[in-house]
Every structure is written in C-alpha cells, then in structure tokens.
Amino acid sequence: METAIEVSDLVIARGRRRVLHGLSCAIPRGSVTGLLGPSGSGKTTLMRAIVGVQKVESGTVTVLGEPAGNAGLRARVGYLTQAPSVYADLTVRENARYFASLYTNATNRDADEAIEKVGLAGASGQLVGTLSGGQRARASLACAILGKPDVLVLDEPTVGQDPVLRDELWQHFRDLRDAGATILVSSHVMDEAGRCDRLLLIREGELIADNTPDEVRAAAGTDDLDQAFLNLIRTRARDQKTVEVQ
Q: Cα–chain-centroid distance for residue 227?
C-alpha cells in the first residue's frame, strides 16, 4: 500500500526534555490511523511535526512525497488542533464560509454541507463564542475538512462529544477515507482504537506498536485493546531490563 506519511528517526526536544526518541513509522494512504497513548506521551508533538509546525532536532517527516511543511502541502493537509481554531465573534456559518473563501475549490455550499456533516446545522447562526466546548471543536472540524484535504490530521477530535455524535463523527472519518483521504486521529481513549484501520501506540515518546487493531490484540494476547496496550508496555519494559542486565 502506498505511503502518505513517513516518519524516520524523529527526535524532538522541548527545552532540556526530549519528547520523541528517534520515532519511525509509516501511514498508508486511504486509511484511518489512530495515534493513541496517555496524555503527555508525545501525540500532539508528532502531529505538529507532520503538519510542519514543530521544530525538529533530527530525523525526517515526509508527507505525500514532500518534506512536512512545504508550501505545496498547504492546500493538501488539514489540521484540527486541540484548541478551537475558529473566530469567537463570528457565527458558525460565517466562520465556515470565511475558511471556504481561502480555498479555490470550496464554495459557500461546501461550507454549509460541512456544518451539517459535523452536526451543527441547528447552530449555524450562533456566535462561536456562545457555543459549548464540544460544539466549538465541531465548528473547527467543519473548517478543517472544507478544502477536501488529501491528509487530515485530527488532534483529539471527539473529546467532549456525546456517544451518538462521536459515532457519527467516526462514520464521517470513514467516509472521508473511502473518498481517498488519509486520516490521522489522536486519542487517549482506547475504546476508539477499534474504529481505526491501523494503530500507532505511543508512550513517553516511543512507539510501542504500529499495526492493525487485530494484530495488536494478537501480539498482546488479549482481545481487550486497553489490556493489550498495558501488556505491550510491560513486555517492552521487561525486554529493556533484560538488555540492561546483559
């Protein structure tokens, strides 16, 4: 399968603390890949590197055949940050239509359709500043998908959403994948791992697993993905101790 994102020996430090420790992975085109791990494990840092807004100490990140952050990728990569990235003093519709105007291939109709897809049609005339945190996150998502990006990087997109809406958002992610997009979704909630085509499990800046959910379960000897993550961590810790003793 063709690769959309390739990360090779990536090292990133913030101040004196190293956040990523020579991390390498490849994300196939046309897939939904989950980036999972506890808070502080380096998920957001890795995503920022993929988008091209993170200073890198060493290693490389290639997106759609180009170095991450290249000008040629700006219209091809969508990015949803954890913090809402829309204007509080504009309505949901005004925000979406403004962002649509920045793309050559997006119209006001596309903006209205994006609002509907994220479940905000009934709140399209509200000022973003009056919305709940979960609604503001959905408004940001609507703007992120407007340009029909080839790669969509979503940092904790389902935090604060109710179960029904979470299910609808995941179905939309799969629809985007089926249309040819590559989706990278971060979460610290392991019950979302089973919704992905592939998983990157990260802890303390190191990759613990890079496989399909079924292969992760098999490697860890359990059908429970929460337990699988714990088993893989413990196995890795034992292997490291064995190497140190030797």
A: 22
Contact 32, 196 (CB under 8 A): yes
Q: What is the DSSP letter of 91?
A: B
Domains in the chain: how many in total? Answer: 1
Of the CA atoms within 13 Å of residue 86, those in its CB half-sphere come to 33
H or E element, residue 212: none
Tell me, yes or no, whether 226 lies in a domain.
yes
Q: Report CA dihedral (82, 86, 87, 90) to the nearest 10 degrees.
A: -130
What's the CA gap between 75 and 149, in Å, rounded? 7
Kindly state whether residue 138 falls inside one of the protein's structural domains: no
Alpha-carbon gap, residue 150 to 181, rounded angstroms: 5
Contacts of 175 (CB under 8 A, 6+ apart): none
Say if residues 33 and 201 touch (Cβ distance below 8 Å): no
**pTM for the predicted model, two decimal places:** 0.89
In a domain, 125, yes or no: no
**pLDDT tens-digit profile, the chain (246 residues):** 699 999 999 999 988 899 999 999 999 999 999 999 888 899 999 999 999 999 999 999 999 999 999 999 988 999 999 888 899 999 999 999 999 998 878 899 999 999 998 989 999 999 999 998 889 989 999 999 988 899 999 998 888 788 888 888 898 899 999 999 999 999 877 778 889 999 999 999 999 999 999 999 998 999 988 898 888 888 877 776 665 555
Do the beta carbons of residue 45 and residue 20 sit within 8 Å? Answer: yes
Specify if 238 maps to a domain.
Answer: yes
